[in-house]
Amino acid sequence: MTPSIELTGPRHEPASGGKADSLVVFLHGLGADGNDLIGLAPVLAQLFPDTAFVSPDAPQPCDMAPMGRQWFSLQDRSPAAMLAGAETARTALDGFLNAEMERHGLAANRVALFGFSQGCMMALHTALRRPEPLAGVVGCSGHLIAPERLADDVTARPPVLLVHGEADEVVPFAAMGAAEQALRAAEVPVEAHARPGLGHGIDQPGLELAARFLLKVLREG
């Protein structure tokens, strides 16, 4: 039996100083760690003073860099290997999400995922297979793992925002269109936004798109 992995990482408690009424979970990319995205929390907290933020470190040391973490290895990028890796990491991430919901006393519809690159892959792969839909998923510069399986595997359909740079040199820009097509085919609400000239990253307009989406799913939804 594979031992369970407990994830941990930096936190940003509600700016209001009160109890969290919602939670945003950042999922970092390959070779980074939770510190990579938690810096977005103080920016978003200006709009979400009662929201808690957490950015867990991925479960494995990165095997393609001298430091950092990975959700799963990308040395073998065959579809079967990536699916197997994502499935293993999903077990740890699901456990983390369940623990965080219990910690804050929040229902699934008060929790949003914000993933970048490999973290985007994990956000999509996990959220669409949860027992209950989360509030929403922001996916930046990633792609959808095993799109051909989604229609059969999907158990939850949270709204999804995809943002991708047209000049991405790491994850091809075409990945966003492929993900959007598969999500729509599986009846998952999705909006996709291209960022002209942007490489593999999150720019200010992309962050503003994410903020508006989170306002909709956490404040109006």
Automatic annotation (TrEMBL):
InterPro entries: AB_hydrolase_fold (IPR029058), LYPA1-2/EST-like (IPR050565), PLipase/COase/thioEstase (IPR003140)
SUPFAM superfamilies cross-referenced by the UniProt entry: alpha/beta-Hydrolases
Domain (Phospholipase/carboxylesterase/thioesterase): residue spans on this chain: 17-216
Pfam families according to UniProt: Abhydrolase_2
Domain of life (superkingdom): Bacteria
Protein keywords: Hydrolase
Family: Belongs to the AB hydrolase superfamily. AB hydrolase 2 family.
Protein name: Prolyl oligopeptidase family serine peptidase
Organism: Aquibaculum arenosum
